Predict the structure.
Amino acid sequence: MEDINQNDNAESASDTEQRLFSLPKNLISNPEQALEAMGYIEGKGWLERQKEIIANPEPIFLPTSIAGAQQFLTKQQEKGDNSYCVYGVGGGHRYFVMPDGEIIFDAYYAQGEGINKARRIGFKIREK
């Protein structure tokens, strides 16, 4: 998968990981930074698609998307759900958004380098 920081003026992968590590992975308190951290793992195409879904003014969005998680966070108190699952590229990675907005990377669905990247940038990991 392509890293989102692959351009001529980008910081190094190590610098990016260090910067992302210190940011809370929370869709309520830090939505843009949380999305950036997920995009670092999933790649530029996934990140751009999530942003398109969020910006789409139509009431239709893909389930298992960031937009779906945002809707979950606004309605979860009335429903009582305890988490919402966001899929990475092709469903290969899964992120659980908790009612407080915290995002947890699920190790059960992790593929290849994904779990190591998630650890390096500071995601809490739901172990198998």
Remarks:
- Residues 13-126 form one domain.
- Helices lie at 13-21, 31-42, 44-55, 66-79, 114-120.
- Strands lie at 84-87, 94-97, 103-106, 124-126.
